[in-house]
Amino acid sequence: xxxxxxxxxMIKRNIGILTMEDQDILKDSTVAIxxxxxAGGEAAIMLARMGxxxxxxxxxxxxxxxxxxxxxxxxxxxxGKNKAETIASxxxxxxxFCKVTVLNKGVDEGNISNFLEGSNIAVDEIDFNxxxxxxxxxxxxxxxxxxxxxxxxxxWGSFLLFFFPESLSYEEYVGKSKDTNLEEFxxxxxxxSAYAPELPAYLDASVLTNVAEGKxxxxxxxxSVSLNAGILSAFxxxxxxxMREIKPVPYYYFTQDMLVLEPKLNTNMEY
Length: 271
Hints:
This protein has about 270 residues and is an alpha/beta fold. It has helices spanning about 5-10, 20-25, 40-50, 85-95, 110-115, 130-145, 170-175, 190-195, 205-210, 220-240; strands at about 30-35, 55-60, 100-105, 120-125, 150-155, 155-165, 255.
């Protein structure tokens, strides 16, 4: 359809939670997201709805049947289609004021600088089993003085990690040196304890064993992916607008495990 409304029309329900000054910052911001399948793709949609002015998307993967249980862009009609291109199309249909840049090859040595340059913040949703590209992404972001945030959905909860250019690096956080040769990450495995510092007692230990041995893929469900996307997009907003102080790794943020949420009594009402 032809655009017949303004940016202010689109974001007016944000006001009261965000200010117009916050919105101006978001409108002038660029967010680079590597990995658009699960939380990365859904967070991109949320950021577009919040009014971010430029979103860069990178993902070499295409949707398959196993993605239908949780990924925002995965539908029968998108099976076989590139994830970054699909999310870009969704964004353009939601927020016509958002510029979208698509890299459908994924990040590599030849394109990482161009992908990250000009970004105010970068989102690392690269596959957990691709530490080489994770290290490449973080190293180049650090060189460009760009903070990186990574969200991890685990069981019924979500973890959030921030990496600032001056803070502990990704390499150091996972037990390596900041100057470790990138090639060493090709045969490296990210420690689960770095990305999921708290594991609930109800987790069957055999699940972790089967994942580590490659017998099963990492299990994940739609609610935790959406939870992860929500906290990711919120904290990107907090970081861009300086709405709250954010502590980088080794600190982490944990969104409450939904399976162990406890009820609270509403004492403000009479029953």
